[in-house]
Write a structure and sequence with these properties.
The complex is a heterodimer of chains A (257) and B (289). Chain A has nine helices and nine strands. By secondary structure, chain A is α/β, with parallel strands linked by helices. The radius of gyration of chain A is 19 Å and the shape is globular. Chain A starts with a strand and ends with a helix. The relative contact order of chain A is 0.18. With 289 residues, chain B is an all-alpha fold. In chain B, helix 2 packs parallel to helix 7 and helix 3 packs parallel to helix 5. The radius of gyration of chain B is 19 Å and the shape is globular. Classes of the chains: A alpha/beta (257), B mainly alpha (289). Chains A and B meet through strand 5 and helix 2 of A and helix 7, helix 8 and helix 11 of B.
């Protein structure tokens, strides 16, 4: 496994946001966290990133030391009037030499490669603040991938992305994950994305309601239980067969059961 | 100490062969401003990016309390003021990082407490009020050789820090979560930045006074934003604007026809740059459309 949440609880201002979360993110998997608004999905990601305090334990095992996390936030709130080009943005985390002296040629080439990977090569010289929501998401994905992460965290990856962008996100990530062997953990509202791209699902509603492969977790009963209404959108028969295979111990248990 | 700086003053008099620059106190003031300007330029960029204008205001207003403490304990206020500013800056940063209150609220509380504390002490002794006026309006013309050397040391420290941390600080300014995920040590950078900013603000108070110190940081950076299209170019623009405003401000203020306060004239020169940058930005916007 890449990440193991053990009894993780988050309380803020007396309100319990997460209660006793115990779940596993299998190594090399595409794991999706689904749940209604206020279920604590983003909170769980932020706890994993160390952005908020929590009780319990989060174990990370990347197989490498130190492990690297790539993070694509749902919405990047920043000062859009700041003069900063996309290639400066992609270089600033790698370049020691101050940006006053320009971006190093090798980092500029590297930025170009990763932008091309997310079909955004034309954005290299553009100002970050002038990008649309979808363009910014692609740049953020390029940034996260350029860190060559062991664990890629995506918070609502398709939010603000056009249809073509969404396809790029999902297909590209599937391809890269198989190619480079990183683990992908994404928060998603989009059940269609989850059913077709995730191979492990954590259903969350402040507690873990269900965990396992999509075919076993995205059942009408589970979805009704966590979303509160009948979700007729998911047809488990339409799920690709290879999405039922998952190496997580919890899934193995389900299969045996 | 005077011998150490004499060649530098002579050089300034040679490079700027104006009549007003042939006197020692003007040469000292010019060197002081030329040391201060690059620091306010580069820190101003980050102050604007971090939206910390209110932070620098709070530090500058703690100058009253710093000076008052020095006068009470018979310690040179030129030393108690920067030290007190440093403590206040770090105090604000600690509370900001560990409190659920908004940044503005935390700084507002410090701001009020510092001003009230300074005024309370000064009100006990009317004679202190006269000394404090110097810090309200600033006076770069009275800068000492010791202060010039301190500024030189601070500039060297700041440039080293910026050369090592500028990119990471920009990253934190964009989004601290993203920076942390990229293994940037956010807390260390934030504390070092706050400490250095507090020291620079306090030295700037001596030059332009409490009322104008934030302008010295913000205006060149704001003008540079209008002119630059990349983070790299913004740095150079801010540096050019800050240095040229300092030189112009000091020279103009010394002219008989002007006879204005130096700090205010420096800030007015950078405001002229800002107006020009707005016009250029508007013209550029029209051309792009």
């Amino acid at each position: 496994m890449a990440v193991r949440f053990e009894g993780v609880s988050v309380v803020r201002d007396g309100v319990s946001l997460l209660e006793d979360i115990t779940a596993t993110v299998p190594r090399g998997s595409c794991t999706a966290i689904i749940g209604p608004n206020g279920a604590g999905k983003t909170t769980l990601l932020l706890a994993l990133l160390g952005e908020i305090g929590y009780r319990g334990r989060i174990r990370r095992d990347s197989g490498k030391t130190p492990s690297r996390i790539g993070y694509v936030p749902q919405r990047l709130t920043f000062d859009r009037a700041m003069p900063l080009t996309v290639d400066e943005f992609l270089a600033m985390g790698f370049q020691r030499k101050p940006l006053w002296f320009g971006v190093r040629a090798d980092l500029r080439r590297r930025a170009q490669e990763y932008l091309a990977m997310v079909k955004a090569a034309h954005l290299a010289g553009r100002q970050l603040g002038a990008l649309s929501g979808g363009e910014l998401q692609r740049v953020l994905l390029a940034l996260a991938l350029s860190q060559e992460p062991d664990l890629l965290l995506l918070d609502e990856p398709s939010a603000g992305v056009d249809f073509q962008g969404e396809l790029i996100f999902c297909e590209l990530l599937d391809h890269l994950r198989r190619d480079r062997g990183f683990t992908q953990l994404m928060v998603s509202h989009d059940l269609a994305t989850v059913t077709h791209h995730a191979d492990h699902v954590i259903c969350l509603n402040r507690r873990v309601a269900a965990e396992g492969p999509p075919r076993q977790t995205l059942t009408a009963e589970n979805l009704t239980a966590i979303f509160g209404v009948h979700m007729g959108l998911v047809n488990s028969r339409s799920m690709p067969d290879n999405r039922t295979a998952c190496t997580a111990p919890c899934c193995q248990g389900n299969r045996d059961g | 100490m005077a011998d150490l700086l004499a060649p530098l003053y002579a050089l300034v008099a040679q490079i700027l062969p104006f009549e007003c620059m042939q006197v020692r106190f003007m040469q000292q003031a010019m060197v002081g401003l030329l040391l201060l300007a690059p620091m306010t330029a580069v820190m101003g960029i980050l102050v604007v990016n971090f939206r910390m204008a209110f932070f620098s205001d709070a530090i500058s207003h703690s100058a009253f309390a710093g000076v008052a403490l020095g006068l009470i304990f018979a310690v040179d206020p030129d030393w108690t003021m920067p030290l007190f500013g440093l403590l206040v800056g770090l105090g604000i940063m600690i509370l900001q990082r560990h409190s659920r209150l908004s940044s503005d609220t935390v700084i507002g509380v410090f701001f009020s407490a510092m001003v009230a504390f300074g005024l309370a002490i000064v009100s006990r002794d009317r004679s202190l009020a006269r000394d404090l006026q110097r810090f309200l309006y600033g006076d770069i013309l009275t800068i000492s050789d010791g202060q010039v050397l301190c500024l030189a040391a601070l500039l060297a420290t700041l440039l080293t820090f910026q050369a090592l941390s500028y990119n990471q600080l920009l990253y934190i300014g964009i989004n601290s979560s993203l920076a942390r995920a990229h293994r940037v040590r956010v807390a260390v950078h934030q504390y070092l930045f706050a400490g250095l900013l507090a020291l620079i603000v306090m030295f700037s108070v001596q030059a332009v006074g409490v009322l104008l110190v934030t302008a010295l940081l913000i205006v060149p950076a704001a003008a540079a934003r209008n002119l630059a299209r990349s983070a790299g170019r913004m740095f150079w623009w801010a540096l050019v604007i800050s240095l040229s405003s300092a030189v112009t401000g000091l020279l103009v203020s010394a002219q008989d026809w002007a006879a204005t306060a130096t700090g205010a004239t420096v800030v007015l020169a950078s405001c002229a740059w800002f107006v020009l940058s707005m016009a250029i930005s508007a013209l550029r916007g029209r051309a792009d459309a």
